[in-house]
Amino acid sequence: MYGKDSVILSDICKRPSGFEHLSPFCYVNILDKSSIEEAVVNNNIDTLIHFSALLSAVGENNVPLAISVNGRGVENVLEVSKAHNLKLFIPSTIGAFGPTTTRDGTPDLTIQRPRTIYGVTKVYAELLGEYYHEKYGVDFRSLRFPGIISTVEPGGGTTDYAIKIYYDALLNGKHICYLKPDTELPMMYDTDCMTSVVQMLHTPSENLSLRTYNVTGFSFTPEQIAESIRKRIPTFQIEYNICPIRQKIADSWPRSLDDSTARRDWAWKPEYDLEATTEIMLELLTAKLLPPKNEPKLATM
């Protein structure tokens, strides 16, 4: 959309072999403000999209690192954005809500008392971003995402079963789920997720009545996604081995989100429902995981 040289990717490791097409690419350590600032100044950056974070289950296993990455990283990008007049997008999450939040049709403005360090640091990011917007005029924007479904391998989030189940369906024909069969959570397909970010970043600042919005696609349970897969792979099986930590986290999150404010302010509308997501996931993962076998060669006489 913006031209090949207009988006610069960054990480704290070298660009992996085979991904040379991901260019331009630079090193950035989110915990080192000068590292961020150097990348911004040297590349004339005008917008920061800040994805660095330890997700829910991973964060519970390393709380000090989660506080550092999810907290200090946010502080650093806000300070750099203030100093260089940048537009800043920081994603938030349904993990920013907690067990005392209304779980059905959860609105944008409601009680937020999360019980994970991931959720606590995301509330901090939301509030600190809004503070920098009010006090310093930083063009801070955030979206509270549900679980995101894509072909990228799971990264340690509680909702990541909704990715692994497709991998397991194709590779093993069976998935062992760590959540109860009736655990309903909001989700969104990857393309809708990217669309929501691009649309929000394009929206004029004066059209935004909030700085942090809910966005969502659809809600389902493990049993419902399994049934969607069985429509295409009739032999697929799902078993349950409940993880108490992940189940407790899931039970503290909304079952569905109200994103009517985003729909009103910047015409947000998802395209993918559960059936469309299952269709595209199985299609893409089949190509990724199950390359076609070589056709037999015909001998000519």
TrEMBL record:
Belongs to the NAD(P)-dependent epimerase/dehydratase family. It catalyses: L-threonine + NAD(+) = (2S)-2-amino-3-oxobutanoate + NADH + H(+). GO terms for molecular function: L-threonine 3-dehydrogenase activity. Pfam families: Epimerase (PF01370). It comes from Panagrolaimus davidi. InterPro entries: Epimerase_deHydtase (IPR001509), NAD(P)-bd_dom_sf (IPR036291), NAD(P)_epim/dehydratase (IPR051225). This is L-threonine 3-dehydrogenase, mitochondrial. Pathway: Amino-acid degradation; L-threonine degradation via oxydo-reductase pathway; glycine from L-threonine: step 1/2. Catalyzes the NAD(+)-dependent oxidation of L-threonine to 2-amino-3-ketobutyrate, mediating L-threonine catabolism. Its EC number is 1.1.1.103. The lineage of its organism: Eukaryota, Metazoa, Ecdysozoa, Nematoda, Chromadorea. Residues 22-215 form the NAD-dependent epimerase/dehydratase domain. GO terms for biological process: L-threonine catabolic process.
